[in-house]
Amino acid sequence: MTDVIPTPSIPRVPVAGGGTFPVHRIYCVGRNFADHAREMGASVPDAAERGRPMFFSKPADAIVVGHDDVIPYPPSTSDLHHEVELVVAIGTDAPEGVLPIDQAQALVYGYAVGLDLTRRDLQAAAKQKGHPWDAAKGFDASAPISEIVHAAEVGDLAALNLSLEINGEVRQQSLLDQMIWNVPEILHELSRLWRLRAGDLVFMGTPSGVAALKPGDRFSARLENVGERHGVIAG
C-alpha cells in the first residue's frame, strides 16, 4: 500500500559512545517526589500507603536533542515552568501481562536527564475544571533531553544527584533516593496500563523548586554519572 503523505521521521536521541535511540512513546510520572507534591498542593501518603503513581504522556516528537540549543517559548501561556527529571530508556519489549518488579530492570537500556516543560497556567485551569492536562504537558519541544548513557555505566541510581540551574542559580536539586516510586516499581505500574516497548522513554518525576522560565533564561540540567543538558529559552 502506498503512503498518501511523506513518512514522518522517527524522533531519535543520541547515545553516548555512538548511535541513536529511536523513540516510541514518552510516559511521565506525576508527583514522584514528596517535596514537589507538597509544593503543588497535593497530599503525600506515607511509604506504606503510596497507592499507585499518576501517569501522563507526551508525544514522541516533543523531544528536543542537541546541546546549548534554543528552546522555543510555547504559545498560549505566560507561565512556562521547568521540571528536571531522570529519564529511563527502555531497550527491550516487555512480555505480555503485568511486568514483575524483579524483572523490570532487565528492560532498561539506559538513562538520560531531561526537562518536562509545563504550561502551568493551562495545567491549573485544567485541574480546576477537571479536564485533561494534554495542552499543558504535550506541546511541541516540551521534552528537552540529554544523550542516553547505557545503564551498565551508571551504577546505583539512588545515590545520584539530580539538579537544575537557571542562569547559574540552582533551582532544583535532590538525590534520586527521594523518589516515591523507583524505576522497577514505575515500570511495573506502567505495565498494568500499557505494554512497554523498546524505544519508550519514562520521565520519572521532578523534585521541588519548579518555577517559571522567562525568554532568554539559560538552563543547565545535570544528573550525576549520566550527563548534562544545556539550552536557552527563546527570547
From TrEMBL:
An annotated Gene Ontology molecular function: metal ion binding
Record flagged with keyword Flavoprotein: no
Domain Fumarylacetoacetase-like C-terminal intervals: 26-228
Span of the signal peptide: none
Keywords: Hydrolase, Metal-binding
PANTHER family referenced in this protein's UniProt entry, alphabetically: ACYLPYRUVASE (PTHR11820), FLUTATHIONE S-TRANSFERASE (PTHR11820:SF90)
Protein name (record): Fumarylacetoacetate hydrolase family protein
UniProt source species: Stenotrophomonas tumulicola
